[in-house]
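In response to a reviewer's request, we include the raw inputs and outputs for one of the modeled complexes. The two entities were modeled together in a single run.
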Amino acid sequence: GDSVTQMEGPVTLSEEAFLTINCTYTATGYPSLFWYVQYPGEGLQLLLKATKADDKGSNKGFEATYRKETTSFHLEKGSVQVSDSAVYFCALSKDNNDMRFGAGTRLTVKP
Amino acid sequence: DTAVSQTPKYLVTQMGNDKSIKCEQNLGHDTMYWYKQDSKKFLKIMFSYNNKELIINETVPNRFSPKSPDKAHLNLHINSLELGDSAVYFCASSLPTLTAATQYFGPGTRLLVL
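The model returned the following structure tokens for the whole complex.
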């Protein structure tokens, strides 16, 4: 079945470091891809998304490009802040009712 | 205004009890979901309802029964609670588009079964 694999955490970075969280997917057809973020004690919220190959999603300095040839959707940010500390989930969906999430990657940014 | 709300936020109960978690969304969405997040943050869909009709019912014990009185509400009733039911339960909602539908999550209900 369709699935998402993301790099295991936890990831610990210093403020202003470059961030990459890897995500690859397995799916038939043409899924849409998402990154969600979960701050401590809260629910998930959408960070960015891409609906077709070569699309780039971006928000709050984060970016991810839908790469069909490598079945990847890696999350990047050029300079992380302490406030970016959270758990990040990669996800895919082919229709409205079935979103598949990765296992989540915990990011801690230290001052 | 809270878009997706859940009550209660915390629930501590004994094994064998029956409990309910309520979810309401004021976004006008037709589709609602229940997810279970375990202690390792792994998130798994349990149910999906579209306009009060069950769409997805993953492999979930039949002790779990969702109820949708109207399209703005999706409640989760759990019978005969077990230790393994301890988790965070999230409600979510979305529009019924074919692709790239953003799901909006509630704040979660932290269930602890003793």
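As requested, we also summarize the result in words. The two ends of chain A are 41 Å apart (CA to CA). The mean pLDDT of chain A is 93.
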